[in-house]
Specification:
The chain has 251 residues and is of the alpha/beta class. It has seven helices and eleven strands. Homodimer.
Length: 251
């Protein structure tokens, strides 16, 4: 299978063979093109493409290249997880993929935190159902917005601050970004555990571009899994392909 994880900022395209995932491309989503996808489709002419996209306008590229080999992820389809949510159509495909991988590889109840353009928290409850989550501005988005909306504040490099009491503007911004973001993550995990009725530790898995910076020093994070979303896309793809094959056989 070809696994396509199309995010607002970055697109990852991977090959999955015998449950092993290998990354083929990691490119800015704005640079997606027919020529790139045609090259991938020609190199793997018999592979199905499982499309997990939160950018609808680029879906047509995949649909026109992979044709009947395309399997878009849609919450109305049987994806392999129960959805306990008032309006499943509101849930991003990547969030469902994270939840399915979370339940399959780490058990439940559990929390997945994905540090992308937005930072999302997705929760699988005691019954193994996706039950909702949190959406917060991503770390890069917050940093850029602070620079854009002020006259004097620069864009700072995101790295580990030296101390909490900063002695320069850039370091003060870095403290606010990194230490402040960690505080948000820890507080939200505690509130989620409280609402789930979990007095003890539950699995919390981080993924995404800023996962190491924010979570690498947090004991409450069990693991950083940069393939979490792709693992979920693989599981969904297997379910969708099996379902289509059964439909063809019945016809």
């Amino acid at each position: 299978m070809i696994l396509a994880d199309v995010g607002n900022s970055v697109t990852k395209i991977a090959l999955c063979q015998n449950a092993e995932i290998s990354l083929l491309r990691r490119i800015p989503t704005a640079q997606l093109s027919y020529s790139l996808l045609r090259e991938i489709a020609q190199n793997f002419p018999t592979q199905h493409c499982i499309l997990c996209s939160v950018v609808p306008k680029v879906n047509v590229y995949f649909e026109n290249v992979f044709l009947d080999r395309i399997y878009p992820i849609d919450p109305s389809l049987p994806l392999g997880i129960t959805i306990d949510y008032p309006n499943p159509k509101e849930i991003g495909a990547d969030r469902l993929a994270n939840a399915i991988a979370l339940a399959s590889f780490y058990g439940y109840p559990a929390v997945a935190i994905d540090f992308g353009t937005a930072t999302t928290f997705d929760i699988v409850n005691h019954n193994g159902a996706y039950c909702g989550g949190v959406i917060a501005p991503g770390l890069n988005l917050m940093r850029s917005y602070l620079h854009e909306k002020t006259a004097l504040l620069p864009v700072v490099e995101l790295k580990e601050p030296l101390r909490a009491i900063a002695q320069s503007t850039e370091e003060a911004m870095r403290v606010g970004a990194v230490f402040g973001y960690r505080g948000m993550v820890l507080y939200l995990i505690e509130k989620i555990k409280e609402e789930l009725g979990c007095p003890i530790k539950i699995p919390v898995i981080a993924t995404g571009g800023q996962a190491h910076l924010i979570c690498g020093r947090l004991n409450m994070i069990d693991q950083i899994d940069h393939l979490l979303t792709l693992k979920g896309i693989r599981i969904i793809g297997e379910n969708l392909i099996k379902r289509r094959m059964i439909s063809v056989d019945l016809a």
